[in-house]
Amino acid sequence: MRYTSAYTFEPIGYLKSCFETRNGTPRQAGLTPAAPATLKLTSSQLTNPAFSVAGLSQFSYVWLLFVFHLDRHAQASTEGTPAQETVRSKVAPPRLGGLKLGLFATRTPHRPVPIGLSLVKLVEVDGDTLKFEGVDLVEGTPVLDLKPFIPTWDDPRALRKDFGDHQSPIELPEWAQTTSIYAHGLTIRLTLRAREHLEAVFLKGREEGCLLQTHSRFLQVLGQLLAAEPRSRYRRERCSDRLYFVELDGLHVTVWFDEVNGEDLAEVLRISARDPRKRS
Questions:
Q1: Which of 12, 21, 98, 232 is the most buried (most CB within 10 A)?
Q2: What pLDDT, on the 0 to 100 scale, is given for residue 227?
Q3: What is the pLDDT of residue 4?
């Protein structure tokens, strides 16, 4: 049998996300349930993009198959030929405290074929444009495909439900088992200065194309993002600098992580509008 060494595909569209840089983007889909994104189908391979999503609105969740386009390996594969450099076969997941596993036993974005899969909530289908919530993808992410989430087939527990005692348990290593991924006990505060900054931004009005158009929606997404602890393990444990910067939907957010009287605190110090010329 002859095997093809490389394939070339055109994305079906590019995601418009409220997360503009890798720094501050959730590690997994659903961690920030209110985080919005839109996808306009632009593929030249579709005879009619709007027709291609007929019936999709009947589903509440979809799988997004995408490219980790900011990964070095992906950027070296954009000229029609695969990247020549190698990828580390073992990586250290954040929860393992430095212990390494084979990359295929993890969800690292640094892969020989840098493709990811996210389950997101489908909010609306408007012609050739789809609206999502709960995304973990950065602005401009190339989307290769999308498929409806069907629990009967996609959830192994549902697939085996009718088989009674023959139901297969879902097995996970101990490090991947956790009761919650959110930082319980983390207090999130806005300084008076940050609140005044935010009110001034929304009083002036958001620039066209921003996804978070209300004061309350922005705070909702920011709170969910911080509660899920966006900092890397290295930043949390090894860096003395407790300042953390997030680019969220055109706004630059400065956060100070600290422990005060035994209480974990994330204090939002400043919120400012970025130069629109820097928004891609």
A1: 12
A2: 83
A3: 74
